[in-house]
Amino acid sequence: MGGDQRPARPGRGRRGRPGGDSPERGADGQPTEDLSEKVVFINRSSKVVKGGRRFNFSALVVVGDRRGRVGVALGKANEVADAIRRGGELARRQMVVVSLKDTTIPHEVYSEFDGARILLRPASPGTGIIAGKTVRAVLESAGVKNVLSKSLGSKNAANVVKATLNALLRLRLREDIYQGRGLELKKVTTPVAPPAEPVTA
User: Which of 95, 118, 121, 143 has its CA 20 to 30 A from that of 130?
Assistant: First the structure.
């Protein structure tokens, strides 16, 4: 048997994630809250240097807790796994809180970012997420389960993701609007129908 037999090291593949299925850990080494991480787009760029080409990868990552917090970031590195890891770390630091109403959004919203234009509309329970894969990644990570959406402009993944995030940040609940104006929110009571009178022959 010739050659040096070395055991395979886990998580060292080009497309592999370091650490396998171990829980996410923060700076203090303690496990962080349960966050979903989605890789939306991976781009490869090359630079011609003396002796060949040098490749660089960028990964667009969306992170969210599915309860109203979501973050988006672009990670860059010389390997795909490192780019995804850096993108996930940056997205966790940049997480923001969005206003949701039950499993949908409180009102219709329209947002633009560069050439991308996104329209979101609330939907009734059971509708699901009617959206493309790029918009769906952001909405699912934020915790939206029922929504109608339409991408009206550029198909560039980075611009579509940022336009979707801007649309979510523009959402406001009725309670927050009333509180900002110093008004009292009136509770709407459902009228009760009077009991039917018995029919006499």
Answer: 95
Of residues 31, 85, 90, 35, the one with CA closest to residue 57:
85
Contacts of 131 (CB under 8 A, 6+ apart): 139, 147, 149, 151
| CA dist., res. 101 & res. 153, Å (int) | 27
Backbone angles phi, psi at 74, to 5 degrees: -115, 115
Tell me if residue 40 falls in helix, strand or coil.
Answer: strand
Fold of 36-180: Ribosomal Protein S5; domain 2 (3.30.230)
Identity (one letter) of the amino acid at 89? E
In terms of DSSP H, where are the helices of the chain?
80-93, 133-142, 157-169, 174-180
Element (H, E) at 72: strand 69-77
pLDDT tens, position by position, 29-71: 434 568 899 999 999 999 999 889 999 999 999 999 999 999 9
pLDDT in tens, 71-93: 999 999 999 999 999 999 999 99
